[in-house]
Amino acid sequence: MDNSLVKKFRNQIQLQLMTLPGILFLAIFSYIPMAGILIAFKDYNIGSGFFGSSWAGLKYFRDMFSDPMFMQSAGNTLILSLYNIVIGFPIPIILALILNEIPGRNLKKIIQTSAYLPYFISFVIVASMWITFLDPKGFVNDFLMMTGIIHEPIEFWTEPKYYRMLSTLVNVWKSAGYNAIIYLAAIAGINQEMYEAAYVDGAGRMRRIFNITLPNMSGVISIMFILGIGGLVRGSLDTSVLLGSPFNSSVSYVVEYYTLDMGLNLGRYSFATAVSLFQSVLSLILVFGTNWLTGKINGNKII
Amino acid sequence: MNKLKMTKEDLVVNTIAIVLGLFVLIITLYPFYLCLLRSFNEGQDAATGNLFFLPRKFTLMNYYIVLSDNALIRSFAVTILRTVIGTLSGLFFTSMVSYGLSKKNLLFRKGYSYMALITMYFSGGLIPGYLLLRNLHLLNNFLVYIIPGLFSYYYALLIIAFYRELPDEIEESAKIDGAGDFYIFVRIIFPLSKPVLATIALFLGVNHWNDWFTSAYYISDQKLWTMPTILMRVLSGVEGLNKINEMKGSVSGMNMGTLNSSSSVTLESIRYATLVVTVLPIILVYPFLQKYFVKGMLVGSIKA
Hints:
Chain B: Its main location: membrane. By secondary structure, chain A is mostly helical.
């Protein structure tokens, strides 16, 4: 047929043989599961398999909305994500600004390097550290009692009212340093002449931060915000499983955990797939929606 | 910018920045120090409170108990094995595929790249992924730690960007000498790309070391569990208590002399020693690897 194509292919057979295993890998580990999403519309069970199971239409999506547990986990996910955005989003930006203003390279470097460290520690360890610290007998209560701020130990983890704030702060502790890197890079890319010109014109440090540094970061900030909004309907399985407990499940149980329980623990595969499909679609709509909105407002788009 | 004169404002901003910076430093590092401190102190003594800076009743008992727990030691070995094999195989596989994809004259390159790009944005999610592993008989199998992590297009993009920067002359002269593509990759390109490989090795290694999900949900044989999963058990409430009594029991069973001192151990003190033992490897390699990770992060964010 196309002899030159065959010949060309044969000439680079080694290159092709190096690339094709990767393509095959993606076909198996990414594309088969993507097709597997169809079981959300089927009555899937392990015995009859994918092709043997009959179609169920939208049955599982209807079931989902009539399950109070789902509605609760969806509400929790949304609230926890709002906490994460309102508190967790600005902190890395502020951290980057602080780091940038620290005089002396060495001090800055030491602080920066330490701030990344928790990102590399497993969430299992981070969670158990903070669970132990905030235990009624842990060091935080110990410290607060010693300084006389409180007289009775606080049940930080068993009282649901503290959970939202605490889990957000644990997440901030773990990843704020890491998330600051991208803002530090944006700051490093700002043209130094702008600062010099502003300095000559008599702008002080604070003016330079607010009129040069921050405006020049706005592009990156918008991008991170768009991505963050997409995460609004996504909860953190790590946080929910590792910081949550029966005492605070009324506020800590998120959709990911619900999917895990329904799917892997109860074997309701089709139902669980329907839940996570619904969630992914919602997340995509949010990303595109915010993308469109920020595009309208300040011309920053990522897609 | 050269400072001609420090204004009052400069001084204030500098001071605030340094104070806040030191606050960040303490908030980040003190929790680790506290674990270290309390792991070396007798548990019952620590429970009386007021222990913040230096050990009061020094002991190695907590470590003695933690390190004589066979399940923990085995999980430690499994985790090391998994991290080393997973990182090396993922590194080699990803960079080999990337080498092919980095060649502009590769037939069907566009098709391959689009196919890979889609996987960065869409995935089948938890359940279809689980069913696939089940059908491939990877559940309850050590290979479930290795095979699904062999390739990621995100890392491939970083490597491809690096390969494109390499001068063409190196390969051309090897080609003239009659070397094939695979030989060139293994003997010349792979060794030359140490900087980018170090970055990716760090990410892969950390992911392997920290992953708790795979063994908690895909492995039922406890002998194959990795350390984070065992830790979840040791560190969680009731189960942790049973586990610790079991640990203490096995120690006092071995040696009657340690019976007394092991009774001063508490759930807390054992937890702290366990935390130190598991965090230590990361802290030890971190200073050597962190510069690669910042570099990799930046390349990644520019691409994205």
